[in-house]
């Protein structure tokens, strides 16, 4: 355990910020199921392959699926929880520039288009500090520079952390019954709320309605199941409470901007190139 903690301390606080002017690059298999809470002085672009990664900040839990990346601004405390030790993590850490585009100030998850995918692929064999002025440094800078131009939609792949203990019980129940049809009135009665008071509690504590929360949670579970590749799309739909495949597909599309089958076709594009 001590060795693991030292590894985290060395990589995530020492190596990344060793040279404040460099762009730090790290590509590797996760090899562990938790990277404890940490922060760094550089902003982070985190791209993953081979599974789902949960990134928890002080206010939210983000769900980062394959063929998407997360932008984490500098000094944001966060922990990383991959769904498997075999998840490939690709990171670029960028120094903060003066008068940066507002894009870089906010946490967010974005799909990776073909251009960014090829540029990330080009960095496959890089590791460590990319010295300012070097060829690789300028290539990495170009990756950062295009993000505000190609990342038009910050996907709602995050759920706020509930603070009210009463709501935590409700959310646990929902997580255990994602495959069922749950009526709001029945849910409120089960936990001793009026519909109005439970509605207000969701809005106040979570900043979203019950239906928004439950829909996002179902779609995030669907992503997990799709990545496991054990069930066809039709059975994934049923497993998260959708008897209608078109309705499931349309809801998935609204959240991720692509159909479930299209998402599956794109998630392993880098798999053959994971040697670093």
Automatic annotation (TrEMBL):
Pfam families for this protein: AraC_binding, HTH_18
Single GO term (MF): sequence-specific DNA binding
PROSITE patterns with a match to the protein in the record: HTH_ARAC_FAMILY_2
Domain HTH araC/xylS-type: 168-266
Superkingdom assignment: Bacteria
UniProt keyword annotations, A-Z: DNA-binding, Transcription, Transcription regulation
InterPro entries: AraC-bd, Homeodomain-like_sf, HTH-like, HTH_AraC, RmlC-like_jellyroll
Name this polypeptide is given: AraC family transcriptional regulator
Organism per entry: Flavobacterium supellecticarium
């Amino acid at each position: 355990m001590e060795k693991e903690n030292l590894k985290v301390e060395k990589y995530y606080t020492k190596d990344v910020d060793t040279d404040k002017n460099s762009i730090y690059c790290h590509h590797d298999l996760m090899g562990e199921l938790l990277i404890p809470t940490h922060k760094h002085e550089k902003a982070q672009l985190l791209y993953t392959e081979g599974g789902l990664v949960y990134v928890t900040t002080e206010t939210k839990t983000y769900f980062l699926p394959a063929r998407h990346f997360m932008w984490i601004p500098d000094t944001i405390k966060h922990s990383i929880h991959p769904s498997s030790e075999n998840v490939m993590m690709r990171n670029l850490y960028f120094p903060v520039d003066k008068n940066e585009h507002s894009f870089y100030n906010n946490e967010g998850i974005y799909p990776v288009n073909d251009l960014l995918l090829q540029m990330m692929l080009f960095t496959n064999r890089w590791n460590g500090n990319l010295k300012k002025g070097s060829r690789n440094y300028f290539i990495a800078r170009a990756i950062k520079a295009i993000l505000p131009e190609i990342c038009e939609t910050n996907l709602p792949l995050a759920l706020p952390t509930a603070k009210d203990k009463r709501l935590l019980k409700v959310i646990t129940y929902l997580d255990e019954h994602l495959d069922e049809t749950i009526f709001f009135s029945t849910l409120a009665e089960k936990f001793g709320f009026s519909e109005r008071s439970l509605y207000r509690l969701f809005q106040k504590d979570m900043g979203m309605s019950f239906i928004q929360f439950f829909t996002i949670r179902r779609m995030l579970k669907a992503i997990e199941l799709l990545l496991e590749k054990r069930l066809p799309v039709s059975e994934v739909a049923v497993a998260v409470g959708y008897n209608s495949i078109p309705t499931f597909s349309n809801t998935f599309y609204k959240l991720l901007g692509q159909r479930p089958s299209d998402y599956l076709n794109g998630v392993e594009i880098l798999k053959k190139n994971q040697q670093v």
